[in-house]
Amino acid sequence: MEADTGNILIDELARKKAQLLSYGLIEVPKDILSNLSVERPKSGPSSGSNLVGFEFKGRRLKLVVSRKRERFRLQRIGNEYVILDGDEVFLKVEPLDLSTHAPGQVFISLDNRCIFNCLFCRRESIVIGEEKLLGFVRRHLEKGISSLSITSGVFPSVEGHVERIERFVKGIRKDYDDISIGVEVVVGSREDIERLRSAGVDEMKINLQLPTKRLFDAICGYMEYEKILRSLEDAVAGFGKGKVTSNIIFGVGERDEDIICSLERLADMGVVPILRMIRLDKGIKRAMERRLGYSLGKQSPERILKLALHQKRILEKRGLTTREAKTMCLACGCCDLVPFWDI
Ligand code: SF4
Ligand code: SF4
Q1: Going by CA atoms, what residue is nearest to atom 4 of ligand 2?
Q2: What does the pLDDT look like over 277-303, one tens digit per residue?
Q3: Based on CB atoms within 10 Å of each CB, which residue in 76, 93, 232, 342 is the most buried?
Q4: Nearest ligand by distance to the CA of 118
């Protein structure tokens, strides 16, 4: 088990990103907000919120816009944007274009409906037609974006969800053979993985979701935990070491050792794990606490940093990196402290 993180230098920008991720909110005056690219997610833990994104010295970050007085506030000084911490200048930032969800990629969700019910995830019943989505993607690829990421709720079944993603990938791949395509998917079998690979997928994300089976069963429970691990193994066999990623959510009462064990288990298989801090709005927090039987609190910047350093050490030891991903979260970096990018 990994333990010592003492000899890795944590730079000031990583500390600042960890503080912002931990706080999660930013106060943005109305006149400034009207000039920014604002994302309004239709599903996921930030559904119903307004999000803004920033870049600073090669790092990226998304925050939820708050209308109340907050510790962190965006201000414009001349042509520059700064985040204030109280009255002090905390960070100079450049606003990001979030019109395609992830900067530099087109990241779409094929279906916001889902037959499963993970407690941290909010689904909607808004359905956008496939033709419209294809048109949206094509327009952006024509403008020069060369990275396409696809996710989807699981609907109407696991097989139906895989089939739909496969059809969409084929529809794009026949006209664009030189772009990178990544899919975040729930698979039921090795054949599902192979179908997607044959359709033209380059990178695959299958989420283990939580660091222990007990937490997975309590919070998601849509599949056997070990089956997800077997699928990850199959995906590495199909796509290669480092081409498969998997979210591990933290901040739900797990121990550091649980996180470290799951990171090591995934990395040993050639999977690049993504450490994702839980986002808790009031409703999600209430539902999770009721199910888990204990209270959930905020994650401190110190814990975010500590876990990211463990993650980096674990990846390094196995010759894995986050720098080669072309699609999805590792290529975006807005939601996590990403080893080799941020720290
Ligand atoms: S399977 Fe995915 S989309 Fe469905 S509820 Fe769980 S996290 Fe949300
Ligand atoms: S890190 Fe992943 S989930 Fe977060 S904004 Fe980027 S692509 Fe979306």
Answers
A1: 335
A2: 999 989 999 999 999 999 999 999 999
A3: 232
A4: 1
Mean pLDDT of the chain: 95
Query: Which ligand 2 atom sits closest to the C-alpha of 62?
Result: 5
Quick one: pLDDT band at residue 124, thresholds 50, 70, 90? Answer: confident
Domain extent, residue 283, equals: 106-332
Domain assignment present for 343? no
Query: Ligand 1, residues 108, 125, 154: which to mutate, most atoms within 8 A of Cβ?
Result: 154
The model's pLDDT over 72-88, given as tens digits with 9 standing for 90+, comes to 999 999 999 999 999 99
In a domain, 76, yes or no: yes
Residue that terminates a domain, selected from 63, 95, 127: 95
- Transcribe 311-337 into DSSP letters: HHHHHHHTT--STT--SHHHHH-SSS-
Q: How far is the CA of 76 from the centre of ligand 1 (A)?
A: 38
Output the CA 95–ligand 1 centroid distance in Å: 29
334 lines ligand 2 (CB under 6 A): yes
Domain end residue (candidates: 61, 95, 129): 95
Confidence of residue 122 (pLDDT cuts 50, 70, 90): confident
Domains held by the chain: number = 2
Query: Which residue out of 183, 205, 220 has the highest number of ligand 1 atoms within 8 Å of its CB and is therefore the one to mutate?
Result: 220
DSSP one-letter string for 216-271? HHHHT-SS-HHHHHHHHHHHHHHH-TTSEEEEEEE-SS--HHHHHHHHHHHHHTT-
Whether residues 167 and 48 share a domain: the answer is: no
Contact 195, 161 (CB under 8 A): no
The closest residue, in CA terms, to atom 8 on ligand 1 is 121
**58 in any annotated domain:** yes
Label residue 274 exposed, middle or buried (CB < 10 Å: 0-12, 13-18, 19+): buried
Q: Are residues 87 and 141 in the same domain?
A: no
pTM over 0.90: yes
